[in-house]
C-alpha cells in the first residue's frame, strides 16, 4: 500500500492530524514572505501557525520564491501544508513534537508570477512583509524597478510597496510592518534606507517617499533557531513510517526559538502572533540579543566549520561528539569570543548564553550539515567575526589562537581545486565539495597566484579592505599565526591543529 502524501485532502480524511484545519485553511492572506527557506518555515511561519491555532493572528502567508530551481514542486503538490518535527531538550525534559503547519496559503515564483505577486499589494488584509534572502540579499544595486521582476530583493520590495501605495492612494492604513530576518546588523534600518534610495533613484515621487517614511515600519529583527535542511534518507524514512504519510516539505528543528523584533506598540498590535509564544520578543532595542547570538552561536559556527569539515566531520553534532573538536569549539567560544563581544554584555550572561549554545550544538536529534554553514562563508566571516577580532585587540595584544586557526581553515576551505562553469569546488580526502561563496572566484585566482607563497597569500587576503572593512595585517601576530597554521595543516593534516597529540582522531 502506497504511503499517502500530506495534503489538505489527507487532513480531511485524518482530522486528528490538524483538528481545526478547515478554519485554518480559510484564513485571509496577511503576510507576504520573500523566501522559502527552512529557517523561515521553522520559525516565523511556526509562530504564525501557532497563533492561528490559538485564534490570535488569523492570517496566512504568501511565499515568494526567488528561483525555480529543482524539479517537482512539493509546495504545489502539497498545497503548501508541511510538517515540522521539533526535537530536543527543553528545561531538562526530552521533547518530540509534531506540528502540521497550515500557515502558508500560496507559493509564487518571482520569475514567472510577478504580476500575481504585485496583485497581493492590492489586498486590504495584507499587513506584514517578512524576508530572508541571506546576508548578501540586503544590498543596494543598480536595479530596474520596471522589470518583471526587479533583480534584487530590495528592488522587488520597493516595486511591491509602490504598487500598494498607488492601489490605496497613499492611505495611512495601507502601510505595512516589514521585518527582514537576514543576519545583518540593523537589517530593518538598512533595508529601509535602500528602499528609500531606490525610490529616489527611480523618481517615484515625494508622496511615495513620505508614505514610506511615515506609514511603514521597517523593524530590525533577529532570528535564532537551528533548522537544518531536510532530514537524511534514513531519518526521513523513520519519520514517514511513524507519521503514516509522506511529506517532501518536512523539516526538523530544535526546541529553542527566538525572534527578537525591534518595534513599538503599533508594531506589537500588528504582529499579534507574538502573544502565542514567549519566543517572540518585541522591544525598542534588541542589540543585546543580536550580539549574543551573532558573536557566540553564529560566530563560533563560522570559525569552527572549516576545521571541523576538513577534519572529516559532516555535521555539528558529529563535531561535538568528538572530544578534540568539542574542546576546540568550547575554548573558541567561551575563552576568545565571549570576552570580546563588541557590545556591553555582562560576562556571566555571555558565559551562560555560550554554555546554552554548546548544549544546543550537542542536540542528538539535529543533523546540521557543516557544508550548509559554509554558504557565503566570506560574508559571514566579515559580519560575524571581524568586529569581535578587532575588539579582542582593543582589549589585549595577544593573538586569539583558536580564532587564527579557524581563519586559517577558512582560507584552506576556500582553496578551489577545480571550476565547472561558474561553480567552484574544493577537495576533501579526494572528494569534491562545493564552495558556495561570492568570493570563490577571488580565492580561486589567489590560490593559483600564491601556490607556493602562503605568507604572500595571507597578507594579500588580510589587507583586503573591501572584504573586511579594515586592514587586518595591522593586528600584531595575527597573520603569522594564520601562516603557521596553514603550513602545519598542509604538512601534517588538520588533526594536528584540533588535537596536537592525535589522541582522539
Textual characterization of the structure:
It is a single chain. The protein is of the alpha/beta class and 505 residues long. It folds into 2 domains: 8-284, Rossmann fold (3-Layer(aba) Sandwich); 299-498, Orthogonal Bundle (N-(1-d-carboxylethyl)-l-norvaline Dehydrogenase, domain 2), CATH 1.10.1040. The protein contains 23 helices and 15 strands. It has helices spanning 8-13, 21-25, 38-42, 44-53, 74-77, 114-120, 153-167, 187-201, 206-215, 233-243, 265-270, 287-310, 316-321, 323-337, 347-361, 370-373, 377-395, 401-413, 440-449, 454-462, 465-468, 478-492, 495-498; strands spanning 29-34, 60-65, 82-90, 93-101, 104-109, 128-131, 177-180, 217-218, 221-224, 251-253, 258-262, 280-283, 418-420, 423-428, 431-434. The strands form 4 sheets. Strands 5-2-1-6-7-8 form a 6-stranded parallel sheet, with helices on both faces. α7 packs across α8, α12 (287-310) packs across α17 and α20 packs across α22 (478-492). The longest helix is centred in the middle third of the chain and has 24 residues, at 287-310. The two termini are 46 Å apart. The relative contact order is 0.09.
Amino acid at each position: 500500500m502506497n504511503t499517502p502524501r500530506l495534503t489538505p485532502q489527507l487532513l480531511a480524511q485524518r482530522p486528528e492530524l490538524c483538528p481545526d484545519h478547515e478554519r485554518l485553511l480559510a484564513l485571509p492572506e496577511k503576510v507576504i514572505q520573500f523566501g522559502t527557506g527552512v529557517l523561515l518555515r521553522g520559525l516565523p511561519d511556526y509562530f504564525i501557525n501557532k497563533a492561528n491555532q490559538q485564534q490570535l493572528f488569523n492570517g496566512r502567508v504568501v511565499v515568494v520564491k526567488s528561483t525555480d530551481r529543482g524539479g517537482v514542486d512539493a509546495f504545489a503538490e502539497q498545497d503548501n501544508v508541511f510538517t515540522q518535527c521539533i526535537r530536543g531538550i527543553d528545561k531538562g525534559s526530552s521533547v518530540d513534537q509534531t506540528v502540521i503547519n497550515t500557515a502558508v496559503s500560496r507559493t509564487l515564483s518571482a520569475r514567472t508570477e510577478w504580476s500575481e505577486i504585485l496583485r497581493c499589494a492590492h489586498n486590504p488584509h495584507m499587513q506584514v512583509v517578512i524576508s530572508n534572502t541571506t546576508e548578501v540579499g540586503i544590498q543596494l544595486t543598480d536595479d530596474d524597478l520596471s522589470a518583471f521582476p526587479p533583480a534584487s530583493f530590495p528592488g522587488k520590495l520597493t516595486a511591491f510597496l509602490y504598487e500598494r501605495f498607488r492601489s490605496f492612494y497613499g492611505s495611512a492604513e495601507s502601510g505595512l510592518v516589514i521585518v527582514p530576518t537576514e543576519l545583518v546588523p540593523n537589517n530593518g534600518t538598512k533595508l529601509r534606507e535602500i528602499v528609500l534610495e531606490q525610490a529616489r533613484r527611480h523618481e517615484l515621487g515625494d508622496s511615495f517617499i513620505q508614505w514610506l517614511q511615515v506609514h511603514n515600519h521597517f523593524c530590525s529583527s533577529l532570528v535564532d533557531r537551528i533548522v537544518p535542511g531536510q532530514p537524511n534518507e534514513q531519518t526521513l524514512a523513520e519519520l514517514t513510517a511513524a507519521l503514516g504519510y509522506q511529506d517532501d516539505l518536512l523539516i526538523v528543528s530544535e526546541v529553542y526559538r527566538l525572534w527578537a523584533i525591534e518595534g513599538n506598540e503599533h508594531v506589537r498590535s500588528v504582529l499579534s502572533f507574538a502573544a502565542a509564544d514567549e519566543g517572540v520578543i518585541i522591544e525598542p532595542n534588541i542589540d543585546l540579543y543580536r550580539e549574543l547570538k551573532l558573536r557566540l552561536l553564529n560566530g563560533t559556527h563560522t570559525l569552527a566549520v572549516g576545521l571541523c569539515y576538513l577534519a572529516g566531520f559532516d555535521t555539528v553534532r558529529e563535531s561535538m561528539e568528538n572530544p578534540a573538536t568539542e574542546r576546540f569549539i568550547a575554548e573558541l567560544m567561551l575563552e576568545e569570543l565571549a570576552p570580546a563581544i563588541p557590545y556591553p554584555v555582562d560576562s556571566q550572561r555571555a558565559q551562560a548564553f555560550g554554555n546554552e549554545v554548546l548544549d544546543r550544538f550537542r542536540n542528538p536529534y539535529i543533523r546540521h550539515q557543516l557544508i550548509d554553514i559554509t554558504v557565503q562563508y566570506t560574508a559571514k566571516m566579515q559580519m560575524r567575526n571581524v568586529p569581535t577580532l578587532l575588539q579582542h585587540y582593543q582589549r589585549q595584544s595577544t593573538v586569539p589562537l583558536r580564532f587564527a586557526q579557524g581563519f586559517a581553515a577558512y582560507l584552506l576551505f576556500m582553496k578551489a581545486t577545480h571550476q565547472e562553469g561558474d561553480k567552484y569546488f574544493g577537495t576533501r580526502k579526494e572528494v569534491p565539495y562545493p564552495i558556495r561563496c561570492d568570493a570563490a572566484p577571488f580565492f580561486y585566482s589567489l590560490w593559483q597566484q600564491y601556490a607556493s607563497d602562503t605568507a604572500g597569500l595571507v597578507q594579500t587576503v588580510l589587507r583586503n579592505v573591501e572584504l573586511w572593512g579594515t586592514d587586518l595585517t595591522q593586528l600584531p601576530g595575527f597573520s603569522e599565526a594564520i601562516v603557521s597554521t596553514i603550513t602545519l595543516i598542509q604538512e601534517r593534516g588538520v588533526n594536528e591543529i584540533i588535537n596536537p597529540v592525535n589522541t582522539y582522531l
